[in-house]
Amino acid sequence: MRRTFGSVRSRATLGATLVVAVALVAAGAAVLLSLRSNLMEQAGNEAQRTAQNVVAQLAAGKAYDQLDLDDESPVQVVDDNGTLVAASDELERISGTATDAVKPQPQSGGTGTGAGTGDDDDDDSGRGEAGEIGEGTEFGDGSATIDGESADYRFAAVPVEAGDRGRLTVYAGGSLDAEQSAVNTALTVMLIGFPLLLGVVAGVTWLVTRRALRPVEGIRGEMAAITASEDLARRVPVPGTHDEVARLALTTNETLAALQTSVERQRRFVADASHELRSPIASLRTQLEVGVAHPELLDLDGAVEDTVRLQSLAADLLLLARLDAGERPGDARFDLGALAREHAEGRAEVTVEARSAQVAGSRGQVGRVLTNLLDNASRHARSAVTLTVRPEGEWVVAAVADDGAGVAEADRERIFERFVRLDEARSRDDGGAGLGLAIARDVAVRHGGTLTVGRAPAGGALFELRLPQAQ
Predict the structure, then answer these.
(1) Is residue 231 part of a domain?
(2) For the chain, what is the domain count?
(3) Residue 310 is part of a domain; what is its CATH number?
(4) Judgement on whether residues 260 and 320 belong to the same structural domain of the protein
(5) pLDDT by residue (tens digit) across 339-384?
(6) Half-sphere exposure of residue 427, counting CA atoms within 13 Å on the CB side?
(7) What are the pLDDT digits (tens) for 325-351?
């Protein structure tokens, strides 16, 4: 069982760690993407500003060899035919633009072949007519080598209408070194910090889960001890946390209490049944033994009476066993008033006032209840017993009243216990085994009703059987 609890802790720890890991990976990826996007945007803005500066010069009609180009960033000026007409002085290699050329091609009309910072004289040769800045900057990624140093760049392509020189495109790059450095730093921090954080989460989850399951282990240990000792009087410890574990412990103790009550009731039932069976069996055996030795002394009436008692007791025990097993009473409809008149027939001391009322269930079991109540009333009545049946709202009430001594209020629940006889001084033959009222109460409960006892108008006992009226 310890391995089971360890497995619970392991699964909880693993689950929490995986959830946190997924969350961290998702958050880390989002942070890296956002950081990279922001830095790429900054590099693009820087490249666009550089390109716009060159575009402004071209739009103003400045000659190619007189363009003021940034020597620290890769810059290309490409004509509409894809020919490089101007470039940064220190540019050695470039990719990611319209052309990988790094040396401008000679231009006709004396516009110059070089780029960079030419001498600004008063000669107008090489100058073009003023143009207009085009719209629609495009961005792309690439790399370049400037003065022997290679790096990745974000290129901005800005078009410009340069008058008689036609449509030109200026490519300028913004360095991605800051983006790569920031992303690499953030990634390094995550690769180092995330495992440490996951370790902390796993450790805390392991400790918290162990602490949370400690009361469960106490409950399990006590249940194991109860099982080993078969002592149902013991109870599991209830933690003072007022949470699900505490409610589990309370429910477990309630189950143990119910089980203890059921087992004790069963043991008393078996003991009482054995005791009740022993008397008629012993009497019957004695009579048979005397009959074998002295046939003329055989008491056949007594033997038959003992046999009838055994048969009746066996039937009662069988019915109680079926009720305890949860036997369903069925859903047959019958008239309780007619059933009451049927079971009161032949009893001279019983007066019947029964109205028709439909109930559902087992006709035989409900008839057994009426018989038991009438037998009990006849046994204790001085002269008269009254049986009434009446509808009462959603219920049908069958009441049996006698004019006997009644039942003391303190004993009104006790008489429904099995093998309980209040008048212990009377003989067993007259009083029965003490199962009639217990059977009657169980049958009433199984049919969704109740059976109670009170005081009758004549001073005796009043038993009221309430059953749901059939719809």
Answers:
(1) no
(2) 3
(3) 1.10.287.130
(4) yes
(5) 999 999 989 889 999 999 999 999 999 999 999 999 999 988 988 9
(6) 4
(7) 777 787 889 999 999 999 999 898 899
Contacts of 255 (CB under 8 A, 6+ apart): none
151, 217: one domain: yes
Residues 197 and 280 in one domain: no
CATH code, domain with 431: 3.30.565.10
Count CB neighbours of 212 within 10 A.
Answer: 17
Across 151-180, average pLDDT: 88
Owning domain of residue 66: 1-118+129-226
User: What confidence tens digit (pLDDT) does each residue in 276-285 have?
Assistant: 777 778 878 8
In the numeric block, which tokens belong to residue 11? Answer: 């699964």
Q: Answer with the one of 272, 292, 324 that is the final residue of a domain.
A: 324
Same domain, 266 and 214: no
Dihedral angle sign, alpha carbons of residues 331, 337, 342, 348: positive
**435, 419 Cβ separation under 8 angstroms:** yes
Same domain, 319 and 339: no
DSSP state of 329: -
For residues 279 and 212, give the distance between their C-alpha atoms in angstroms, rounded to a whole number. Answer: 58
Last residue of a domain, one of 324, 348, 369: 324
pTM over 0.70: no
pLDDT at position 394: 93
